[in-house]
């Protein structure tokens, strides 16, 4: 039996995190090591050793998630993903040098490829997928139960009734993709909720909130 | 593992710096990364990809009704026509503010953000206070950014829970009729394209 899956990143609606600290838009980084951390994560991501949903799963399950800065979260998840694949070993991280031979990678990102790789991104829209079950205006209820794996249905929107606002076509299904089980493309929808449906008597007036939800998360209300 | 010394923030940061250097050394020695590629990535996000890209999109939408129409129908294509494509902006949707509705974007689950038009997200966008509260108390959050909306203007919060990325098109400020696209772009702030701010108004 596998260990229970716990995400520490599902923050919508939680309280007690204190004030927001706005910052000037010209600020790019906050420590000298942050640019290197960003570049390491993107360069290793480009090797094809894992996909973005596996990355998100590795980040959100870090037990110290809420105590780390965002680039520290990225770094810790990068180490976890590489350790899991035997690409690096704990004694190497301690020593700061290679102690074991490298393992083969699908590809290595070269400088001349950087502009085209960043400009291409990783589109998730797919031509093929089952036909859409829902149409704009349909009333739907989101899945109420927790699932023991990565998912993109936030806790605050579980078991709630909303309205389909937009149909985005078939997208790679994050829940399945994160588990390394293929892409399983299915229709993605924008679902809008009245604040009162989400927050009851505490709801602020004149507020609606939407999520983007894969079809598996939804049933007709 | 597990050692944590919140009172020694400086040494914590130094520890992270050492860890980054160690990783960079190991991965280079193993041939997993090319250091020159790392430099190219950093240079891209330092100098070429940032919120001025989005400001040009908004300014063009304000100045050119045909472009606005295209942006609202197919934001990915309309934005790509200005040369802004790629990572974390593969599937774009433009959200025009109106007198009736003010749009506000968040990612409560992580840090999803439209990189090709806005660059790297600010720290607050990735942090717990914003992500937790903006879906529940958006007016309180806006107050912390110094923004008060007209009473009666609805707030529409978009939680980016999949790979669709959202760009808010703020209302064009009054008194900007004679301005060029370049001058209009200077009025467009990053926060106004997330929804936590409003565009600047021109100097009288």
TrEMBL record, chain A:
Keyword Metal-binding recorded: no
Gene3D superfamilies: 2.30.30.50, Nitrile hydratase, beta subunit (1.10.472.20)
EC id: 4.2.1.84
Catalytic activity entry: an aliphatic primary amide = an aliphatic nitrile + H2O
Top-level EC class as recorded in UniProt: lyase
Keywords: Lyase
UniProt-recorded Gene Ontology molecular function terms: nitrile hydratase activity
Pfam families associated with the record: NHase_beta_C (PF02211), NHase_beta_N (PF21006)
Residue ranges of every copy of the Nitrile hydratase beta subunit-like N-terminal domain listed in the record: 9-112
SUPFAM superfamilies found in the cross-reference section: Electron transport accessory proteins
Domain Nitrile hydratase beta subunit: 125-219
Top-level division of the source organism's lineage: Bacteria
Record's function text: NHase catalyzes the hydration of various nitrile compounds to the corresponding amides.
Family according to the record: Belongs to the nitrile hydratase subunit beta family.
Protein name (record): Nitrile hydratase subunit beta
Source organism: Ramlibacter alkalitolerans
Lineage of producing organism: Bacteria, Pseudomonadati, Pseudomonadota, Betaproteobacteria, Burkholderiales
The gene coding this protein: nthB
Automatic annotation (TrEMBL), chain B:
A molecular function (GO) term: nitrile hydratase activity
Signal peptide segment: none
Keywords assigned by UniProt, alphabetized: Lyase, Metal-binding
Keyword Zinc: no
Enzyme class: lyase
EC number: 4.2.1.84
Protein name: nitrile hydratase
């Amino acid at each position: 039996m596998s260990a229970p899956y716990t995400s520490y990143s599902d923050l919508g609606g939680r309280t007690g995190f204190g004030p927001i600290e706005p910052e000037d838009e010209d600020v790019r980084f906050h420590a000298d090591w942050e640019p290197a951390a960003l570049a390491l994560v993107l360069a290793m991501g480009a090797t094809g050793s894992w996909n973005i949903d596996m990355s998100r799963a590795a980040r959100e399950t870090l037990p110290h998630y809420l105590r780390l800065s965002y680039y520290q979260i990225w770094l810790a998840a990068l180490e976890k993903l590489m350790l899991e694949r035997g690409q690096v070993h704990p004694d190497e991280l301690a020593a700061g040098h290679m102690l074991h031979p490298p393992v083969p990678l699908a590809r290595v990102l070269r400088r001349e490829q950087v502009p085209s790789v960043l400009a291409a991104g990783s589109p998730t829209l797919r031509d093929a997928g089952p036909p859409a079950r829902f149409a704009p205006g349909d009333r739907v209820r989101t899945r109420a139960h927790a699932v023991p794996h990565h998912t993109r249905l936030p806790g605050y929107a579980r078991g709630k009734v909303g309205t389909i606002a937009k149909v985005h076509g078939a997208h790679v299904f994050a829940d399945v993709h994160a588990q390394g089980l293929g892409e399983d493309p299915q229709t993605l929808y924008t679902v809008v909720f009245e604040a009162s449906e989400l927050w009851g008597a505490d709801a602020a007036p004149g507020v609606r909130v939407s999520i983007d939800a894969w079809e598996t998360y939804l049933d007709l209300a | 593992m597990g050692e944590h010394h919140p009172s020694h923030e400086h040494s914590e940061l130094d520890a992270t710096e050492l860890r980054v250097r160690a990783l960079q050394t190991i991965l280079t020695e193993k041939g997993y990364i090319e250091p020159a590629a790392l430099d190219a990535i950093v240079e891209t996000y330092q100098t070429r990809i940032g919120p001025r890209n989005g400001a040009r999109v908004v300014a063009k939408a304000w100045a050119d009704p045909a472009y606005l129409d295209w942006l609202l129908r197919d934001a990915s294509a309309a934005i790509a026509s200005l040369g802004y494509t790629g990572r974390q902006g593969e599937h774009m949707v433009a959200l025009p503010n109106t007198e009736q509705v003010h749009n506000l974007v968040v990612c409560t689950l992580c840090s999803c953000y439209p990189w090709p038009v806005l660059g790297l997200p600010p720290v607050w966008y990735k942090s717990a206070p914003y992500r937790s509260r903006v879906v529940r108390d958006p007016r309180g959050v806006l107050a912390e950014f110094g923004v008060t909306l007209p009473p009666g203007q609805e707030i529409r919060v978009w939680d980016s829970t999949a790979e669709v990325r959202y760009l808010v098109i703020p209302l064009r400020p009054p008194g900007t009729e004679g301005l060029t696209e370049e001058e209009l772009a200077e009025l467009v702030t990053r926060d106004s394209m997330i929804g936590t701010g409003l565009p600047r108004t021109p100097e009288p």
